[in-house]
Amino acid sequence: MNRFKLMCITFTTSLLLVYFVAQPAKANDRVPKVLYLTFDDGPGFIYTPKILDILQREHAKATFFVIGNRVLELPGIIKRMSNEGHEIGNHGFIHPSFEFPNQETQPTVSDIIKTDKIIEKICHKKPLYYRPPGGVINESEIKHILAHGHRIALWTVDSEDWKTASSQKIYDNVTQHARPNSIVLFHDGVSNSRYTIQALPNIIHYYRSKGYVFSTLPITSKKLPGILYQASKRTQKA
């Protein structure tokens, strides 16, 4: 190889290196895909600690929507959630389907405020998010809860762990539907939660292999599908 050809190859190689090193990452490469894992109806003394163990082992964060009267019974678990970097949301003081299975009733605003104070006493922070039991909420309730300073968090993917006696079914429900910024509903305070703890590690591994991270619901102004930040115009006039 003559000297001229060698110089040309060296120069071309240098240009290619500069091009690939200097090129900025595409926006999609810089922004990680996020999945929001959420757990309702706890704390429970059996399954909640096991879910916390999984999340700690997998370096994943989640948001727990807790019931006030259960928090009073298990404050240590709530403290652990907070200490390990999870977000704690308000799920009312009692769960109507547990306490009043034959009645159509939802937590009152005073129940929600009561639970706020219980959580704040343990974690030294008022919950930002409220999730209505069963996702059932009317426009009047939306208006008053938002006025009290909460964001109302629903979900975009239901794992259906509350009615599914199969960890594989839970896994399939999530992996077939959850996409970037999905809010996934699980439960840590029901008897079927034993299947949730079987499915959860596999769900985390599946999404992590696709480049996802697992975060608490944001406390910033980031807008997500499934969260109510303000009342509709019709509600505001009510």
Annotate the secondary structure layout:
Layout: H1 3-22, H2 27-30, E1 33-42, H3 47-58, E2 62-66, H4 68-73, H5 75-83, E3 87-90, H6 96-99, H7 109-123, E4 129-130, H8 139-147, E5 151-153, E6 157-158, H9 167-175, E7 183-187, H10 193-208, E8 212-214, E9 227-228, H11 233-236
Parallel strand pairs: 1-2, 1-7, 1-8, 2-3, 4-5, 6-7
Antiparallel strand pairs: 5-9
Question: Can I get a quick summary?
Answer:
The protein is an alpha/beta fold and 238 residues long.
Structure explained in plain terms:
The chain has 238 residues and is an alpha/beta fold. The protein has a single domain, classed as TIM Barrel, CATH 3.20.20.370. Helix content is 45%, strand content 15%. The chain contains 11 helices and 9 strands. It has helices at 3-22, 27-30, 47-58, 68-73, 75-83, 96-99, 109-123, 139-147, 167-175, 193-208, 233-236, and strands at 33-42, 62-66, 87-90, 129-130, 151-153, 157-158, 183-187, 212-214, 227-228. The strands form 2 sheets. Strands 1, 2, 3, 6, 7 and 8 form a 6-stranded parallel β-sheet that branches. Strands 4-5-9 form a 3-stranded mixed β-sheet. α9 packs across α10 (193-208). The termini are far apart.
Spell out the CATH superfamily: Glycoside hydrolase/deacetylase
Low-confidence stretches: 1-27, 233-238
CATH topology, by name, is TIM Barrel
What's the CATH architecture name?
A: Alpha-Beta Barrel
One letter per element, helices H and strands E, the order comes to HHEHEHHEHHEHEEHEHEEH
First-residue to last-residue Cα separation: 85 Å
Gyration radius from CA atoms, angstroms: 23 Å
What percent of residues adopt helix (DSSP H or I)? Answer: 40-55%
| Count of individual helical segments | 11
Q: What is the 3D shape? A: globular
Please outline the major beta sheet.
6 strands, parallel
Which strand-content bin applies to the residues?
Answer: 15-25%
Q: Give the CATH class.
A: Alpha Beta
Structural classification: alpha/beta
Q: What's the count of strands?
A: 9
Task: Provide the residue-averaged pLDDT.
Answer: 85
What is the domain total for the residues? 1
